[in-house]
Amino acid sequence: MELVIAISLGVLTSTGVYLILRARTFSVVLGLTLLSHGVNLFLFTMGRLTTGAPPLIGLTESHTDPLPQALVLTAIVISFAMTAFVVVLALKAAVELRSDHVDGEDPNEDRQ
Amino acid sequence: MNHLMIMPIVIPLITGAFLLLMYGYNIGRQRFLSVASTLLLVVFAIWAVMQAGVHDYTLYHLGDWQPPFGIVLVLDRLSAIMLLLTALLSLFCVLYASRGSDEAGSHFHALLQFQLMGINGAFLTGDLFNLFVFFEVLLIASYALLLHGGGRARSRAGLHYVIINLVGSALFLLALGILYGLTGTLNMADLAQVIANAPASDLPLLKAASLLLMVVFGIKAALLPLLFWLPRAYSAASAPVAALFAIMTKVGFYAMVRVFLVVFGLDQAAPANDTVMAWLWPMALITLTLGGIGVLGASSLRTLTAYMVIVSVGILLATLAMNNQHLLAASLFYLIHTTCMTAVFFLLADLIGRYREAGYDSFSIISPLAHRWLLGSLFLIAAVSMASLPPFSGFVSKAWILQTSSHLPGYLWLWATILGSGLLIITALSRTGSGWFWRPGERTLKVTPPLDRGRTATVALMIAISLALSLFAQPVMNYLEVAAELVYQPAGYVDAVLGDYIRHDGEVNSSEVNSSNVNSGEVTQ
């Protein structure tokens, strides 16, 4: 399971970073979503990976750490709100600047 | 437990939420509520400063959960000073905005209150994850405040600002994840203790986490490779918002002081913060130099002021990287001065721009100006203070920084960059003043608009604070000396927060803390 988690963390983060560097607002928003998803998964695994154990001490032999789950919940809510905000902002910027480049204008426009 | 302590967070929260609910209120009532709330904040901040002067650490346990299990708010001299500075600054910003800038968009006052809640919370909290949450609160309010008034320039600057801060939040969570995975706690005092006793095999990961945190706080504070969002964002924001943002970079500085000197600095023999300090030092110096060049190259007063913010960040972080107790006290004094003065300049740019016939605050356009004598004198006094000439607080603070750093290694670099950037600032400001007030000559406007007394008085009052700060420098300096001393005794912080776990009373007397300090010192020796 460690390998699967580690690979998916790596894939999420690297695709996220790649998309953020695309410099078009839509792919940046997608990249931010993937990156925050990867970060949430990372935070979640920081309580160590245990399966089939409740987050309560004493019921069974092993138990999971509930705190990272609470942290992830907070982080998910915040990143959800931020994504909603950045989507609206990207739309506003695209309408006002007439371009979906993050700088408001495409530096290579003349070359195309 | 003293419930007054949480008031700097609760008051703006309630006011902001109420203002959102009462959306239909006319602007007059909104202004009244907003001014009343910030006035209350000033009162509570003064209480906090006095309280922190008597008791070194005052604690507040949210939900009466004991640390390290619950979230704890910690009030010490450093956070008290920052609270007072924020409250005063926001009061002036609200007063200035109430003269009309708040009508450019909706919800200005509600957003400003939420922003204050986030800033005050970040200064008070003693829990690292809670710090993240308050950062998000202040950031999301600042995103909307930056866009206040709308327009192409703001959308463009806003997009950069939001995206880089979202990436910063992701990195913050990564760092928190690493720290929690290694130590199993997020309470700052508990973290400090665990990090100080960490096995050598954990050190590389701890240092990675501390460097990640440096990047995160570096984005907030505008450290060199991460500062390019700042000039555009600050010069695009409306004047009162930009003035309030003057404290935002200082939140990053505060977080660095708290995290790197207290959380990572408990083990004084082999502190875990040496990697961060080694990186911070050259980058802060280059930030400072770049800020000075930017000041000289700016094409409008707002951009110039934004670069002066970068200069101030460079000075603050360079002094932090020198890692000296007395120098920290001096840089805290400089922090108060520079926050007030950059805010004054953002407001002045707007004020003078209103009375120029054309060009607003642009340097390239020569245009006649109404109320030349009054605005010119205000600009001259503010420029003298900003350029750190006597008799204003800038002179006191820079002289103090130069004096205390004179026996530290590497002080020549600091002296050269501080004095060099000071020269560039003087040049740029005198060029601005002569271009605006002398070159139009006696050409007068066709119609002289009446002077806005409210706005002018607000700016004049803020400049008067700078003068007062230099007149009453001694008591402030004494207060800051002790504040810096407390920061450099992280054992006292840890003891006050965690020792309370056993003692169960909210306030820890300074005598008790001092005696326990001595004890722990003896044990380690």
The 3D shape of chain B can be described as globular
Strand content of chain A: under 5%
Highest CATH level, the class of chain A:
Mainly Alpha
Number of beta-strand segments of chain B: 3
Major sheet strand order of chain B: 2-1-3
Largest sheet of chain A: none
Largest interface: A-B, 33 and 26 residues
Structural class computed from helices and strand pairing of chain B: mainly alpha
User: Stretches of chain A where pLDDT falls below 50 for ≥5 residues?
Assistant: none
Largest sheet of chain B: 3 strands, antiparallel
Strand content of chain B: under 5%
What level of helicity do the residues of chain A show? 55-70%
Total beta strand runs of chain A: 0
N- and C-termini, Cα separation of chain B: 35 Å
Spell out the blueprint of helices and strands:
The complex is a heterodimer of chains A (112) and B (525).
Chain A: H1 2-20, H2 25-45, H3 66-97
Helix pairs in contact in A: 1-2, 2-3
Chain B: H1 7-21, H2 27-54, E1 57-61, E2 72-75, H3 77-97, H4 108-124, H5 128-146, H6 152-183, H7 188-196, H8 203-221, H9 230-236, H10 239-245, H11 248-263, H12 274-297, H13 301-322, H14 325-355, H15 372-386, H16 393-405, H17 411-438, H18 453-471, H19 473-487, H20 490-503, E3 507-508, H21 510-524
Written overview of the protein:
The complex is a heterodimer of chains A (112) and B (525). Chain A has 112 residues and is mainly α. Chain A has a single domain (2-51, 63-105), classed as Orthogonal Bundle (Helix Hairpins). Chain A is built from three helices and no strands. In chain A, α1 (2-20) runs antiparallel to α2 (25-45) and α2 packs antiparallel against α3 (66-97). Chain A is elongated and about 65 Å long. Chain A starts with a helix and ends in a 15-residue tail after the last helix. The mean pLDDT of chain A is 88. Chain B has helices at residues 7-21, 27-54, 77-97, 108-124, 128-146, 152-183, 188-196, 203-221, 230-236, 239-245, 248-263, 274-297, 301-322, 325-355, 372-386, 393-405, 411-438, 453-471, 473-487, 490-503, 510-524; strands spanning 57-61, 72-75, 507-508. With 525 residues, chain B is mainly α. Helices cover 74% and strands 2% of the residues of chain B. Chain B starts with 6 loop residues before the first helix and ends with a helix. In chain B, strands 2-1-3 form a three-stranded antiparallel beta sheet. Chain B has a domain at 273-471. Chains A and B meet through α2 and α3 of A and α5 and α6 of B.
